[in-house]
Amino acid sequence: MSELREIKKLMRHNLIESYRGWWIWHRLVKRYHLGRTRVVLLPSVNRAYSYPALLYIDQMLERHSYETAIILSVDPVVQRAAPLFSQRILAVETITRKKAERLMQFYCLYEFDARFVVASLDEPNGRNAAGLIGKNGTTAEELIAIGVYQLPDFMKEEAPYYRGEDPELISFLGKGDAYGT
Description:
The chain is of the alpha/beta class.
């Protein structure tokens, strides 16, 4: 009997979090008048996912017929790095992890809007593509481009050029094993 109570409690909690995610989404829609704009959520500070998500943003927008993108990220470095990757990024917002979780909980309820994409290999709950990294030479970059952005014929992109001295941006733009490439 206590297990049933726990399940009901969890379902109630998830439903409330979904509702809060719905509010977050609708405030975004009103604020930006989305239209042909795609919202990309980067829900963690895992730069192995954030880097290729930004790297292939233009190809994703082209392939799916969107004009611009809004990036939501829990990593403040993404806000500084994103303009280096694309001129088509309309805005970059740093959000709390709790807001990201609420948006993903709403997304898990049902696919509410094709303009929303979660650029992660292991979130929302149930997604487990990170285990494919290294299998037959597969990289996180390929998994983001093909699996998340649905770019079966993506063209390899080069890192944007950065002339500044911000060590976090230099690290973010660096190549190597940390990015799964």
